[in-house]
Amino acid sequence: PPDAMGKITYIAPAGQYSITDTVLELEFQGVTKKFTMLQTWPVRTPRPVASKLAADTPLLTGQRVLDALFPSVLGGTCAIPGAFGCGKTVISQALSKYSNSDAVVYVGCGERGNEMAEVLMDFPQLTMTLPDGREESVMKRTTLVANTSNMPVAAREASIYTGITLAEYFRDMGYNVSMMADSTSRWAEALREISGRLAEMPADSGYPAYLAARLASFYERAGKVKCLGGPERTGSVTIVGAVSPPGGDFSDPVTSATLSIVQVFWGLDKKLAQRKHFPSVNWLISYSKYSTALESFYEQFDPDFINIRTKAREVLQREDDLNEIVQLVGKDALAEGDKITLETAKLLREDYLAQNAFTPYDKFCPFYKSVWMMR
């Protein structure tokens, strides 16, 4: 454990042990301490690291709109705000199924109990191909923290901290971990309820005044790090937090506090969801601040990609401007070039950005395929 010190007097020989067997003894100032493989750690305290590193490897999710237009990195922070029925849970489950992390911690925080049951039914049947070609069940790399809406409020407030501490434990082993929190709004509501019971002064919408500080201290625990101890290893924790603002209103205190902290914003749109365009990420309001950090990766992968992506964004932005004109004067009044722009944008929208999570050929899209389709 990080806080242990002294002279090693005993190390267990190689073999099979349970987590309660003594594997190490330390002597410090005449006192001998025994250590097992079980570690206890206070969940609200971040685990110590040697140093923080700059993140430069993309988190590939298998969702074209996220990988190509709004990429995140291993060790990044992302927020998925969206109203009910926009597909937040489907996106966060797709991330846990197909992302390129070594381990996944999925915290169901105050959501429906059926969602946890769904995960437990779906994940054991899914397999992923390991680098050496073996097929493994996705369940083997997944840790679930189940904390549904009918469980005590105090547990809900602690569940997100429990999840991030588990993620840090795997990170200290040198893995890239991604943590899905579904949803941080329920956690903030639990915080509000507890602070109400403690008779603290309420702030905006009845949330406690320290809401933003608590959210920041949670998201700050993400990042790519050099782990303590030897042998030298690097690990990372990526946090993806789903936020459900009441009525899909992004000016809600939880959403606005989250957006001031996270680096990637995948905003879900109710109108797109009603048109059955999934994943319903609105490409006009979403953003990613990691595009420059990933430029070196893209240069190695495909030198043209950055130009193609800029072009695609321009086409989508131009389409939005043209749509206003079309609503006023109709499509026939446009110049020929603008009509082509509209058709191209329609192709991009319907065939590239929309993706069916329930078909075998389209539920996961590798990055090279995303690049070639965009080209």
UniProtKB/TrEMBL annotation:
* UniProt signal peptide: none
- The UniProt record lists the ATP synthase A/B type C-terminal domain at 296-375
- The ATPase F1/V1/A1 complex alpha/beta subunit nucleotide-binding domain extends over 62-288
| This enzyme's EC code(s) | 7.1.2.2
Which top-rank group of organisms is this from?
Eukaryota
Task: Give the GO molecular function terms.
Answer: ATP binding; ATP hydrolysis activity; proton-transporting ATPase activity, rotational mechanism
Q: Does the keyword RNA-binding apply?
A: no
Q: Which Gene3D superfamilies match?
A: 2.40.50.100, Bovine Mitochondrial F1-atpase, Atp Synthase Beta Chain, Chain D, domain 3, P-loop containing nucleotide triphosphate hydrolases
Catalytic activity line of the entry: ATP + H2O + 4 H(+)(in) = ADP + phosphate + 5 H(+)(out)
Q: Which PROSITE patterns match?
A: ATPASE_ALPHA_BETA
Pfam families per record: ATP-synt_ab, ATP-synt_ab_Xtn, ATP-synt_VA_C
This molecule's function is given as: Catalytic subunit of the peripheral V1 complex of vacuolar ATPase. V-ATPase vacuolar ATPase is responsible for acidifying a variety of intracellular compartments in eukaryotic cells.
Q: Which NCBIfam families match?
A: PRK04192.1, V-ATPase_V1_A
* Name by which UniProt lists this protein: V-type proton ATPase catalytic subunit A
Q: Look up and give the organism this protein is from.
A: Vigna unguiculata
